[in-house]
Design a protein that fits this description.
The protein is of the alpha+beta class. The chain has one helix and seven strands. The longest helix is centred in the N-terminal third of the chain and has 13 residues, at 3-15.
Length: 81
Amino acid sequence: MNELEKINVIFEWLGNGGRVRMVREMRTHGGQVFAAGEALRLLRLEPSLVDHSYVAIFESEEVANKIIRIRETSFDWIEPL
């Protein structure tokens, strides 16, 4: 994903109030499962400490305090609601 595509994806999220849904199931290292179709809300966007990419932090709209960090390499796992 080039820089322009990355910015367009982020603006799609923001234009929709930061609301997205999971395209397919994702499991965190902590054992939490985010099901396909689960609604998420963007909490913040952080620069990666490892490289020049971004990490998006989302919270589940269905379960309180259920948070996932998604690196930009996995941005295609989510889509705007």
